[in-house]
Amino acid sequence: MAADTHANNHVRIFDTTMRDGEQSPGASMTATDKLEIAQTLDAMGVDIIEAGFPIASNGDFEAVRAVAGVVKNAVVCGLSRAGVKDIERAGEAVKGAVRPRIHTFISTSPIHMKHKLQMEPHQVLDAIEGSVRAARNLVDDVEWSAEDATRTDRDFLKRCCEIAIKAGATTINIPDTVGYSFPEEYGALFKDLIESVPGADKSIFSAHCHNDLGLAVANSIAAVQNGARQVECAINGLGERAGNAALEEIVMALRVRGDALPYRTQIDSTKLTRVSQMLSRVTGFPVQYNKAIVGKNAFSHESGIHQDGMLKNNQTYEIMRPEDVGQGATHLVMGKLSGKHAFKEKLRELGYELSDNELVDAFTRFKDLADRKRHIYDEDLVALVDDALSHGADSIQVKRLRVVAGTDGPQTAEIDLVIDGQDVWRTARGNGPVDAIFNAIKAATPHEAQLELFQVHAVTEGTDAQAEVSVRLSENGRAAAARAADADTLVASAKAYVAALNRIMRKRDPRAHPQEMGAA
């Protein structure tokens, strides 16, 4: 796969949501989740989908293999360390893909070589050559990464890249693994490597940036300006610590600022908001309201001056059209008199295509909400439908809840759960109504999971707004997060806790620790 990285203006989008993104604590995805996301990314035009780390667990191996079997257009990539077993496992997982790739990595910085690998530089060079050759014997498309490249000695990094290219690497990834670099120096690094490494014209150079200093997108763009033709990124910027470069921000920066950035991607940007919402539903991680491109407020205007300007010409305060990123500008006013047809059309406008049974269930929930809430906003519908889609197939579900609260006390919760089709009723006291609810759930389904996060916010304005509750639980080093929405904050709290508990139960199979398995 030779490429002229200087003349070619096509920037390949390498999505690592399901691999690096999944390493974010609490963001683990099931095989079903990964299939849904992968097919959406493929339809959106992503060039390379990194589906996981096959040797991490049998579940991850099967998920990568399943993704490889359904993706029609994109390259499907599996990550591996430099060991032969890792590489063989990755090759086995992706071999069914239309376009398979193995992505192998090793650390190159002095601090990583000394403390993490406990290897001398010459041993690392030997490992690079051996791992790339082993991968190339299994697939034609091999990516090699220098973990912690931005803290690596420049001359040693050049030698590493040269060896990887000679061994057959078709893509050379230069990650800013710890989010350490600035745009000027990261761009200069790519320029130097592409101009001085022997054989650099035979490979595509790739950027992979973490956001520890909030510079991941800026660094990625600087790399593109200096010859990188692949950018590794994740939906919503999901990833370890402060996350990765956000796919949606990179795509729209290249599109909106084509005057200064004469590069292109093949991404269908109208699908960006929907895939963002899908990932939020799957992981339970909410998208911040002011998130660029896909956030709830990205195209909202409250200031009178801004509103006046928008009424006269929307370009006064918007540099892109909301419909270009899948954020519809037209709003239907939904209420208790709305019929099923109008409801279905509104959901289609918001990017949902539901089955008949899902539509009936969502419409029933909508009618119940409309009886309690005067104004139904788009955000209410998104929360309502995502809540139904997220938890409808869970083995534990909330059937009924009754709470006694107030100054007199004691605060008491009575809860009726459906556990694997059986009704289980329990009552418990607590230090406040929420504590009583969670104690009642523990009584109904005993577990050792600890509550790490409990967060409530209103989906829309007003005293009758739906409450959206986020809960994160941890058990034996595993974390799971979930969200739920309801007009009753206590009901939403119970649903969110139960949803997170369902995720914890699904994750009880042993798997490698992300810090041991993660890369780049």
Account of the 3D structure:
By secondary structure, the protein is α/β, with parallel strands linked by helices. It is 40% helix and 19% strand. The protein contains 17 helices and 14 strands. The strands form three sheets. Strands 1-2-3-4-5-6-7-8 form an eight-stranded parallel beta barrel, surrounded by nine helices. It has a three-stranded antiparallel β-sheet with strand order 9-10-11. Strand 1, helix 1 (31-44) and strand 2 (48-52) form a beta-alpha-beta unit. It is globular and about 75 Å long. The model is unreliable at 1-7 and 509-518 (pLDDT under 50).
Strands across the major sheet, in which order?
1-2-3-4-5-6-7-8
CATH superfamily of the largest domain: Aldolase class I
Strand content: 15-25%
Number of domains: 2
Question: Main attributes?
Answer:
520 residues, alpha/beta, TIM Barrel, Double Stranded RNA Binding Domain, eight-stranded parallel barrel, disordered N terminus
Layout of SSEs?
Blueprint: E1 12-15, H1 31-44, E2 48-52, H2 58-70, E3 75-80, H3 84-94, E4 100-107, H4 110-117, H5 121-136, E5 142-147, H6 154-167, E6 171-176, H7 183-196, E7 204-209, H8 216-225, E8 230-233, H9 247-256, H10 272-283, H11 304-312, H12 340-349, H13 356-372, H14 378-391, E9 396-404, E10 411-419, E11 422-430, H15 433-444, E12 450-458, E13 467-475, E14 478-486, H16 489-506, H17 514-517
Parallel strand pairs: 1-2, 1-8, 2-3, 3-4, 4-5, 5-6, 6-7, 7-8
Antiparallel strand pairs: 9-10, 10-11, 12-13, 13-14
Helix pairs in contact: 1-2, 1-10, 2-3, 5-6, 7-8, 10-14, 13-14, 15-16
